[in-house]
């Protein structure tokens, strides 16, 4: 299976081998300078991250007859509130954080605007080019946090006399791989036009041109495709037919995957690791704890997780027996219902973690202990010590042995959760293979949202699809910095909605819960005739 992982937007503007190629590149740069494009300022405040971005995008026929979108970020910054004392997100603290930092970030973004040489900037008598569009997250999310960003966005739209687009947060996550493709198209030719962009170019000017373009390795993302949206607030498998047409195939009505992993991590992680964290992203810390040897910034294909995927549905729903006397039951192991449910798995993991502190439940671990031949391979991140199969849970448990068992629990919890995600993806693909026409069949699975940054998740999805007969499905996931909440994805989605002819009214209000499904009561992205979320521009 080919995975377009987009781990880094690389700048290939190295020394060209031929003068002809150099002239072509310089010509493209000149074209980019002449092309003003659509300039979008975006704000994202749906939760506890205060985010602002400035995106320039335009259509180009430089490389293909069919116009393709090219984009570059002039500014993209995020400040996350410190919620460690609460062990999670406190709405009042998040709002105060937005109020304190949003204006400052907007001010920084304004300093990154291009110089004013347009009729609009001459009319406003401003030294910079005013944006063409304001994009802001409208929902779903915490209403008070959303309102803070929306009020600032409305003020800017009024002051500059430009349209505003209220963006669906999960739609923006789903479209992020398209943003990455557009950024990638301009990476080889862009010229820094702002202090922020100039600083980012330092990290990008590293790789020489290899003679093959990046798009040859990562073909364009075309509709339809499947979206796996996984975050702290949402877990959804969505069939995306177009920009505004989406159908939810599978979702959760209780706890989201990211929330379950956060709660489990607070029990599983050693106190020293919990207390040393700089934020409340406990799920991300759980991955680092489970795989301490995974190199920072590496791709999942570069690391041996020693993971064997379930080749059948029967294997997928087997109880997970640990070599330490406890077991975990897979979510919905007795049902093929198209839903996600992580409540039971999370509760099991937390109870086991609690027992590791008290030792009261496992003083005689004999019944379900596996042999050393069935335990993790020696030398792996989670392999128990040679004599641990019978004595690991004694009252005299050493600290290093307890850490070893917690590490195993972290991996087992993530493995069953991720296989549960993969199981419903396989079911959808199997059904489509039987009933859908060729044009309706998906060729790509997009994984987005905060949990999409988990490399073990990407590995499990890839391996499961391979052994279940869907190795031809391409998996696309954004770089880590674009998996979590950010304003760049809001800018891109707002720009796409504007190009499609949609804008928002200034009297729009935050939407706490906003389903993407076009067949739902809310009418999906666009809303209903009685209660539309957008109007034609």
UniProtKB/TrEMBL annotation:
InterPro entries: ATPase_NBD (IPR043129), Gcp-like_dom (IPR000905), KAE1/TsaD (IPR017861), Peptidase_M22_CS (IPR017860), TsaD (IPR022450). It comes from the Eukaryota. GO terms for biological process: mitochondrial tRNA threonylcarbamoyladenosine modification. SUPFAM superfamilies: Actin-like ATPase domain. GO terms for cellular component: mitochondrion. It is found in: Mitochondrion. The keyword Transferase applies. Its main location: mitochondrion. Its EC number is 2.3.1.234. It catalyses: L-threonylcarbamoyladenylate + adenosine(37) in tRNA = N(6)-L-threonylcarbamoyladenosine(37) in tRNA + AMP + H(+). Belongs to the KAE1 / TsaD family. Homodimer. This is N(6)-L-threonylcarbamoyladenine synthase. It comes from Neurospora hispaniola.
């Amino acid at each position: 299976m080919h995975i377009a992982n987009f781990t880094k937007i690389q700048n290939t503007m190295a020394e060209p081998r031929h003068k002809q190629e150099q002239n072509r590149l310089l010509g493209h740069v000149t074209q980019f300078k002449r092309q003003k494009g659509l300039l979008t300022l975006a704000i994202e405040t749906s939760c506890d991250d205060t985010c602002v971005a400035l995106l320039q995008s335009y259509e180009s026929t430089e490389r293909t007859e069919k116009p393709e979108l090219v984009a570059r970020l002039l500014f993209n910054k995020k400040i996350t509130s410190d919620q460690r004392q609460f062990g999670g997100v406190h709405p009042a603290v998040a709002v105060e954080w937005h109020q304190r930092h949003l204006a400052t970030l907007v001010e920084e973004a304004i300093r990154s605007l291009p110089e004013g040489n347009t009729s609009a900037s001459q009319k406003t008598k401003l030294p910079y080019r005013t944006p063409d569009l304001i994009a802001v997250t409208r929902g779903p999310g915490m209403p008070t946090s959303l309102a803070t960003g929306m009020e600032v966005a409305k003020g800017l739209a009024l002051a500059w006399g430009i349209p505003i687009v209220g963006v669906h947060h999960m739609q923006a996550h789903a479209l992020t791989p398209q943003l990455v493709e557009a950024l990638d198209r301009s990476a080889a030719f862009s010229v820094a036009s702002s202090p922020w962009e100039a600083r980012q170019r330092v990290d990008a000017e590293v790789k020489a041109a290899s003679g093959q373009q990046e798009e040859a390795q990562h073909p364009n993302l075309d509709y339809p495709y499947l979206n796996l949206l996984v975050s702290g607030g949402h877990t959804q498998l969505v069939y995306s037919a177009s920009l505004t047409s989406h159908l939810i195939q599978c979702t959760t009505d209780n706890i989201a995957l990211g929330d379950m992993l956060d709660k489990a991590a607070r029990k599983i992680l050693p106190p020293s690791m919990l207390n040393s964290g700089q934020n409340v992203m406990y799920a991300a810390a759980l991955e680092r704890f489970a795989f301490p040897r995974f190199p920072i910034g590496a791709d999942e294909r570069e690391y041996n997780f020693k993971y064997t995927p379930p080749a059948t549905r029967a294997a997928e729903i087997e109880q997970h027996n640990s070599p330490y006397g406890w077991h975990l039951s897979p979510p919905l192991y007795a049902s093929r219902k198209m839903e996600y449910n992580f409540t039971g798995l999370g509760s099991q993991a937390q109870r086991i973690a609690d027992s590791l502190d008290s030792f009261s439940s496992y003083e005689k671990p004999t019944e379900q202990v596996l042999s050393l031949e069935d335990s993790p391979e020696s030398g792996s991140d989670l392999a128990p010590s040679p004599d641990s199969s019978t004595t690991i849970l004694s009252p005299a448990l050493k600290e290093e042995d307890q850490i070893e068992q917690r590490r195993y629990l972290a991996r087992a919890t993530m493995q069953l959760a991720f296989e549960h995600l993969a199981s419903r993806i396989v079911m959808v693909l199997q059904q489509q293979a039987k009933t859908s026409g060729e044009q309706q069949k998906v060729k790509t699975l997009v994984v987005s949202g905060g949990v999409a940054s988990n490399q073990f998740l990407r590995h499990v999805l890839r391996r499961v699809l391979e052994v279940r007969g869907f190795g031809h499905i391409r998996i696309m996931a954004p770089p880590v910095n674009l998996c979590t909440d950010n304003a760049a994805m809001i800018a891109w989605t707002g720009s796409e909605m504007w190009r499609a002819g949609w804008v928002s009214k200034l009297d729009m209000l935050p939407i706490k819960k906003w389903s993407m499904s076009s067949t739902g009561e809310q009418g999906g992205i666009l809303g209903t005739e009685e209660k539309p979320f957008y109007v034609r521009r």
